[in-house]
Amino acid sequence: MTQTIRVNDASVEKAIQKGLRQLQLTQDDVEIEVIEEGKKGLFGFGQKDAVVSITVKEKIKQEEVVVEEVEESFDDEEFDIEDNYEESDEAVEVLDNHIEEAAHVTKAYLEQIAEIYGAPSVVHVEVQKEKMNFVFETDKPGLLIGKYGKILNALQVLAQVSVHRFVKGRMSVQVDVGDYRLRRTEALQQIAEKTARRVLKTKQPVYLEPLPAYERKQIHAYLSKNKRISTHSEGKEPHRYLVVEIAE
């Protein structure tokens, strides 16, 4: 089923940008129909918002289905997207000769996936002692990020599996598109701060929208610094969400 949203704002351009932010896609990934041009009005009278209809192109929807199937084959709680390695201080040193091969094979694998998705990319690799970073450089970042980073998280799982075919030790893997991870972390911190203020003001729990385990973990870690706030997760994947409330 095709996803369509209707958005209104002061101007057509603002409505379009608002909708793209909501979908976390680029203008290349959607079809836009202007429903109402909107009016500025005079001295605040007769003002009317612009209204646009934004439809996600079918190609993107099909790709998300494929990625969801990949994600569902891994349990977020058992296969941590951030700390997926065996605890062994010696393993990486012993298998150093395989690290270069793991990086080369995984880079080619990710570039092949991006090509199939219709987002040709160059993947840059940075290898540190216990961490391997893969960063996509592409003209279509929205295709590889997906809503709330869902596609990117699935690509990270695939990269982790690929790397750990060669390196069995203490090696974490991260996949990024540009600086999305940094921007998303900053956005999650803002959500956490805003939610904490609301809970402290109203004394009522706040139920956040469903998020991947990796992002719930970030919000939980950030709010754990506030002793007046407590957090816990409820629901089942992929609809598991975080509850923020006053600490008892």
UniProtKB/TrEMBL annotation:
Entry's Gene Ontology cellular component terms: cytoplasm
Domain R3H: 182-248
GO biological process: cell wall organization; peptidoglycan biosynthetic process; regulation of cell shape
Pfam families in alphabetical order: Jag_N (PF14804), KH_KhpA-B (PF13083), R3H (PF01424)
GO molecular function: RNA binding
Alphabetized PROSITE patterns for the sequence: R3H (PS51061)
Subcellular location as annotated: Cytoplasm
Keywords assigned: Cell shape, Cell wall biogenesis/degradation, Chaperone, Cytoplasm, RNA-binding
Transmembrane parts of this sequence: none
Origin: domain of life: Bacteria
Main location (coarse class): cytoplasm
Free-text comment about domains: Has an N-terminal Jag-N domain and 2 RNA-binding domains (KH and R3H).
Record function comment: A probable RNA chaperone. Forms a complex with KhpA which binds to cellular RNA and controls its expression. Plays a role in peptidoglycan (PG) homeostasis and cell length regulation.
Family: Belongs to the KhpB RNA-binding protein family.
Quaternary context: Forms a complex with KhpA.
HAMAP family xrefs: KhpB (MF_00867)
Name of this chain's protein: RNA-binding protein KhpB
Lineage of the organism: Bacteria, Bacillati, Bacillota, Bacilli, Lactobacillales
